[in-house]
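Worked Example 4.2. Consider the chain below.
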Amino acid sequence: MTLPTSSPPEPPVPQDGRLEHGDVSLTMRRTGNSERYILQAAALRRRQLRAAVLYGSSRSWRQRQALWPAALAGIILVAVIVAAVAVTGAFKRQQQITQEEQQRQQPAVVEST
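Applying the procedure from the previous section yields the following structure tokens:
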């Protein structure tokens, strides 16, 4: 009694015709060298296009510079400038109030003498 040998089951191929990484290696085992190079070139091009869409013109996500430190420094700088303008305005307003009080008191002092 010998058992019949069966071939390994075929992996399911997606409906849109795209191959996943595991499927590509299985497909390449069954093809000749020239076809294998074409499949490898297509997989490389697909990875390059995906990286271009995801990361833009920066070529790679590793080279992308973080923007949050510069944004945080800019927000702090704007807050300091706004605070300085507010303190200067309050100081000038207080000086004006003090001068008005002194002018009200001076005529009263002159009349009482």
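The CA atoms of residues 14 and 20 lie 9 Å apart. The chain has three helices and no strands. Compare this with Example 4.1 before moving on.
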